[in-house]
Amino acid sequence: MSYRLFGVxxxxxxxxxxxxxxxxxxxxxxxxxxxxxxxYPNVDCEGVDxxxxxxxxxxxxxxxxxxxxxxxxxxxxxxxxxxxxxNQVTIRSANGVTLIGQGMDETILDFAGQQVQTxxxxxxxxxxxxxxxxxxxxxxxxxRVEESDGVVIRGVRATWSGGxxxxxxxxxxxxxxxQNVLMEDCECYNSSDAGLYIGQSINVIVRNNYAKNNxxxxxxxxxxxxxxxxxxxxxNTGGLLVFDLPGNPIVGRDVRIHDNIVRNNNxxxxxPGGTVRAIPAGTGTVILASRRVEVFDNxxxxxxTADIAILNGLAIEGNEDSWMIKxxxxxxxxxxxxxxxxxxxNYYNFRTENIVVANxxxxxxxxxxxxxxxxxxxxxxxxxxxxxxxxxxxxVLYGTIGESGFDPIEATLNSNDNHIxxxxxxxxxxxxxxxxxxxxxxxxxxxPGLDDIFQPAAPFAPFDCTELEGGSIAEVVLK
Length: 479
Hints:
Layout: E1 2-5, E2 8-11, E3 28-30, E4 33-35, E5 52-55, H1 60-67, E6 75-78, E7 81-84, E8 89-91, E9 98-100, E10 107-110, E11 121-123, E12 128-136, E13 143-146, E14 149-159, E15 171-176, E16 179-184, E17 187-189, E18 194-199, E19 202-207, E20 210-212, E21 216-221, E22 224-229, E23 232-234, E24 238-243, E25 253-258, E26 261-263, E27 283-288, E28 291-296, E29 299-301, E30 306-311, E31 324-325, E32 340-341, E33 347-348, E34 353-358, E35 361-363, H2 378-386, E36 396-398, E37 420-424, E38 430-432, H3 435-443
Parallel strand pairs: 5-6, 6-9, 7-10, 8-11, 9-12, 10-12, 11-13, 12-14, 13-15, 14-16, 14-17, 15-18, 16-19, 17-20, 18-21, 19-22, 20-23, 21-24, 22-25, 23-26, 24-27, 25-28, 26-29, 27-30, 28-34, 29-35, 30-36, 34-37, 36-38
Antiparallel strand pairs: 1-2, 3-4, 31-33, 32-33
């Protein structure tokens, strides 16, 4: 099945799409084809199965009316223009819905006039496709898709027009608690938390997107089986993050981060709160409380604090009880992960383990680590203190929390209990920071330095492994 987009017939991923016999391009006021000549330069209802509804550019009231009365497999085609929205676009109680505009620069949903704190476009529905439009100035999230199976977000821009600001909405594009998600060719700017944010989802592809001027450019949170590639994350506070949050029922695993560009992520952190408030400016990638993650064939450039940091969740939330997940609540695949358990069989997901970092390029990073807030961003401050007499911070940093052995000089006295593999990343440098000791020492007034960390030469033994335990991560194949 296919539909006409920008003059090209495209097969729609995951079975979404439509064909039909409606005619377009003529003035009409029928329910299924409200069209004004010239407003549909790239896509219209011609060749799309009924029900297909066209809405003239800027007719916000009509858009809200249509989305409030949806039936399954409805396609909504939006004309060119700016839509001044005073309420969120809510899609509920219908599956197979397609919402499509004329392109990011042609169809703009402007939510600056929202009267209450709501999202821009808010969706619950399987087999949902949104494409070819801009969502701007939403009070909360730009696009939020929840509890849906089969989601395509393609060619969508989310932005806040006033630039980076702590009063902006949290997330630009945010599929959460969903399955079989494709996000591609999208853009996001100025989110006060994360631009492109995949949360608590299973089977995800994030490819060929662009994130700029967000606190976090791209985040993969508590997600299983994700392929993240071909993206550019630049001029954010942190570029591309993979982490679990405490207490969420889906334990993150099997995430591939490859063939991305992560550069110049040095803007000041403007998050009003949340976990991302702890991200130092100048951070490329953080892997936190995660397992079975591969980071390979990426380009890292000019991230002032560090390119890649591998951290135990206790570095951010030190209370182990906060990381407890009741066995009965755990979702997704966990049985083969060897998670820590208590006497009642409940899980704890603060450990970061089974990580491979390989064949990434590094240049110009680590020259000005963020030391501006020891209270809000203590790890950035600690890194700045440790490396104050060095030319640059090492390219890959490992926090070392949970290791049974550490020594700043002798490799054989260092353990690699968590199976952190950087042996294939010989274009960069590596250091093990021993955060428990160096952090405690700083709090007690003992200033740590380079003599307190382990900086082995390549291939970085005992972290010189190059493969995941249990086998490499497979490509994500969406249904």
